[in-house]
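Work package 3, deliverable 3.1, input record:
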Amino acid sequence: MKLLHTADWQIGMKAGTLGDTGARVRDERLDAGRRVVETAKNHKADFVLVAGDLFEDNAVDRVLVQKVADILGSFGGSVFVIPGNHDPLVPGAVWEHPAWRSAMNVHVLKEEAPVEIPGGTLFPCPVLEKHSGRNPTAWIPAERTGGIRIGLAHGTVEGVRQDEPDYPIPRDAAQRAGLDYLALGHWHSYATYPGADGAPYMAYSGTHETTKFGERDSGNALIVEIAAPGAPPSITPVRTGGIDWVTVAKEIRERGDLQAVREQIESLANPSNTLVDAVLSGLLVADERAELDHIEQILSSRFLWGRLDASRLRPSPEDDTWISNLPPGIIRDAARRLRDNPGASPEIAARALMELYAIAGEVSQ
Amino acid sequence: MIVRSIRIADWRCFLNAVEVGPFEDGLNVIHAPNTTGKSTLFEAFRRALLDGHKVMGKDVEALRPWGRELAPKVTVEFVHMGQEYRVSKQFLDSHSAVLERKENGRYQRLAEGTAADDKTREVITKNPPGRGLARLENWGIAQVLWAPQGSLAIGQLSSDVVSDVRNMLSAQVSGAGTGPVEKRIEEHYLQFFSAKGKLKTGKEAPLLTRLKDQLAEATEARQKAYTLYLAFEDASRRVEELHARRAQARHDADEITKALRDARVVADAYRKLVSERDQRSERVTAAEAQYKELKQRIDLIKSTETDLSEARKKLATLENEAPLKDREVQEREKEAAKRKAELEDARKGREAVDVASQLADAARRFNECHRELHRLEELTSKIKKADKALADCRQKRSAHVAPDARTLKAIRKAVKDRDDAQVRVEASLITLEIVPQKDGSAEVVAGEAPGAVTMKAGIPTQIQGSPEVVAELPHVARLRAWGPVGSVEEHRGARAKAEQKLKELTEPFGTSEPDALELLAEMAKDLDTSLAEADTRLKTLLAGRTLEELVQERSILETTHKTFLDAHPEWEKAFPDSETLEAQAADVKRAFVACVENAEDAWEKAQNVLAAVAGEKETLSQRLEDTKRQVAGLVAKLDGLTTDGKSLQDRDAELQRVTMAWEAARARFTEIQDQLTQYEDDPVAVVDRLEAQLEAANQESSLAREREVREEARLEGLCAQGPYSALASAEERVAQLEQEAKREELRVEAIRLLRDTVAACRTEAITAVSRPVEAVATRTLQRIAGRRLGRIQVGESFEPAAVVPETFEQAVTLDNLSGGEQEQLYLATRLALAEVLGRDDRQLVVLDDVLTATDAGRLARVMNVLEEAAQRLQVLILTCHPERYRGLKNGTFFDLEKLVREAASK
């Protein structure tokens, strides 16, 4: 049996920090979905499992629902979907959309009841509400009845740090339920959980497209092969994500650091599909001010989205050119005051000094 | 700007054209007595430079010479920034203005009319007057440089002058390049902020404002989207709840239906039992009624028969008692009549009682009257005696003449005076005592009693006299005695006076002996006492009445006494014994009362007995009647009960029969009742309840369904709007705008901070630089007035605000200085500011009759200061005391009076 395991597409999710770029990022998630289906086709998967959170929320635009149904419907083979905690099976859910009835190969599994699949049995664990302390896999009968047993659940494997247990799933849930593989959804990073023999019998595929900065190992789908009932599954992650979320954080200490940052940013591949969040802190020398502006310009012009946070970057008190390059008299006095006595908002004072420097520069030209 | 000359004509007191000048670059003094026109000249100079030539109004009309229709004219030649100018103005009629500039040694017209006004004014001020004549605030830098008469103090300078001073000062603290940078900063600042520091709005609003507006709109849109999203979640929850409620209602309905089915079966069986029970109950009731009726009738017949028998017996008894009672009543009536007659007889004894009582009373009163009469007679007699005794006392007292205490005291004094005088007389006499051894005589030659004096042997013979005593013993001796000379006559006179007085006092009493007089006084006292006692006795006897009253009272008693005697003549001889008579009367009365009471008691008893017996008779009659009626009634009742002709035995038999039937019915009823008690609840009621519950459950279910359908439709509507996606877009938009606004705000605030910081640095720099103005002014003041006042403190607008004496750390306001010190302080400050303003172009300082309160000593120091200032400034002093300024070494003097005279003579 070969299957493709995916989850947490979070279609329709908002990207507040990205501002107007959020729409583009949302669209990219649909493209990533198409790549998932393509991957399933390329790897000749028997069926596709979607372990919940296909949508970010039940109240997403219904056009998106149609699009996702079309994307999954384009697979050709069976697609088994369970609702997750973001799109639970509640009144008004996305699952009520007529698109699901049209996509004949897409099966939205709404009950805790075994389903015949090619070569075995599927035990779906649909989510019926946003939060719960119940183990969703508890209903799966442990007796083996022949064939490969696959579980499909959405929740948190015990041991993952969280404030309150949310659909807790035991680490040995696969063994307890006598499953050959338990396909999990909920957490966005790829992770596997070995059984007693060291082989992974349960795994998170992670989200098919990265959802935020700092997200580890996301943007994948899993190709899972199981040779026979009881045989350990072979799990292969396949990249499906199209957007890179890159964080560049640097403390500027000496001359040249800014240039290094710029070069690092410039070296990022595929800028039109890259989001860059640059956070700089430390001390700025006067003659590197232009470098800073350059970095900001590169970020705003070259990348899908770029932000420069220099709020904690301060004019270096040891760099006297902040002062000496200015006209003597009250201008220098003002500059000194801005640099050395920033007052309640050092960020504003630093910016004021930079503005002064820029103005002085303009005037001198 | 400095002035070269001033020409004035047809201006107030200047009828003829007068020209004053040419003024030197340094110190110039225009002097003239009062009313010559010094201040008018200064005024004309000001008008030429500051006022428009077309200005009208009564202030301008006042410039005309009095009573004349002449147009005031003035011409001023001045130098500004190295160029020589001449401005000529005519006001009011045919007003005109011409400004000329000297070019190649000749004045060429530069501007005329209003342009000439403006260009001329620009030399001094940037703040022209709106209408009318220029006021102080329109003088520009002249506010500092020119001090009109009596106005040496520096008030609030106009902002343009303050700005000029500051600019002149600040040029020293800013290097080259500062200005453009500041200007650029200001330009940046003004892109965002108004001059008052507020963020610009409207068409000129900066990007930040627009971003904030957009952000506000986006936030509102987000709020709406969020509200819509919440509505979606709410609707979803509600639909879920309604699902559950409907399912529950359906489940409840099914349960109720099942229970209802079972309950109906039970209810049917129950109903059957109830019906049968009811039937049996009816039968029991009927049998019981029959039994009761029958039993009641039998009991009634029996009791009626019994009652009838007793009534008849009672009737017979009563019929026997009636005549006996009649007889008893008659006897009692007789008895009562007899007792009444006895009572009437007893009452007739009242008369005797009255007679006895009256007699006793009359006897008592007669005795009282007699006693009273006797008493009165005795009293009258006593009173008469007392009255006579009183009259005797009075007579004795009248006859007895005696001195009173006061007279006695005077008599004693007179006696004493006499005796004292006598003693003094004797003391003042010379006494010659001869004790002859044989009888003889002496001849008193000088002495009290001159003449012969017979002497007896052994008996002293005294011869007294004053101032000497001379006695001759015939044929024996001439004896002469003398002594201290005293005023015996005087003493004798006093003695005679005292004797006369004594005589006068005692003459009425017949003696002048004090003891006798004392005795007389004692006797008079005793007589007074007796008199008082007699009087008291009389009053006591009268006891507040008069003798006539007593006599009259006695007369009345005598009449009463006679009346009694007339009625009882026997009493004249023997007084009646009133006590005995009263006792007798009491006895008669007692006997009478007892007799009457006994009779009354007897009669009352007889009455009571009669009433009782009569009552009994009445009762008996009533009972007899009642019994007869009772008998009749019972007979009728019995007849009514036995109309069916049955006997009692028949009725008993029937009763037995009915009793048995009733018991049988009861037994059958109890049996059914026991069956029914097996049911705990009323099955019919249970069915009703269940039916109602089913109805309610069905209704609830259909209501829930309706609501569910409605909510589903609403939910569907909300789903179609994709609220989450709308919210996501709105939030991203808000985040985008927030980022942009934050970025822009950072820039705007940075510009504001930059501008404020530069302004603060500038202010501090200027403040630091304006200190030299304070220092210069302070030094000048100290040169004039000494160190006492300390340092001048200058305000933000460069007006002197206070002084800070060296010995006193705190600032002292200027109103605490003397008039002279204030003059000197203002002069020092004006000169210090004038030096700042005159740095680029030599300036004119005008002092019109100032320093009037400054003494000669300080004035000399002021001259030194002015001469030094004149090296950098042109100083023009107007004064009516030229002698004060003669000390100036380099001053140029202009005698205005002389110039006016010369002009008039032309």
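Chain A has two domains: 2-239, 244-364.
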